[in-house]
Amino acid sequence: MKMNKLLKKIKGMTLVEVMVALFIFAFSSVSVMNAVTEHLRGVSVLQDLTFATWVANNRLTQLSLEEKWPPQNNAKGAEEMAGATWYWQQKTVETQEKDMLSIEVRVSSDEAGENIITSVTTFLSRPVVGARNAR
Length: 135
Prior knowledge:
4-stranded antiparallel beta sheet, 44% helix
């Protein structure tokens, strides 16, 4: 007899309680999805920045290995890396030291150079004639 009374007192959730629970779940799900989307977008930007920096560093290394002095100002080029084409432009600026130049390489994802992803600057000194053969 006590068991029947106990079963009659147990109630399920009301429709309002179920709707509130579903609203909370939906709201939190949307928030989680927005956070995941922003994270993935950030990873993509970081990946582009990494590859663009590698392209700029490759160009600066290439310039340091060349014995041509002075390096061409406003030279442009493209490099294929990670399945994408990266466009670079170098700018040379004279320094107070006559045998040293400042070289800036800007890398963009478009050929016009409007969407610059990164810029790397270094200093380059005039190569010593015959220095490679002296080794």
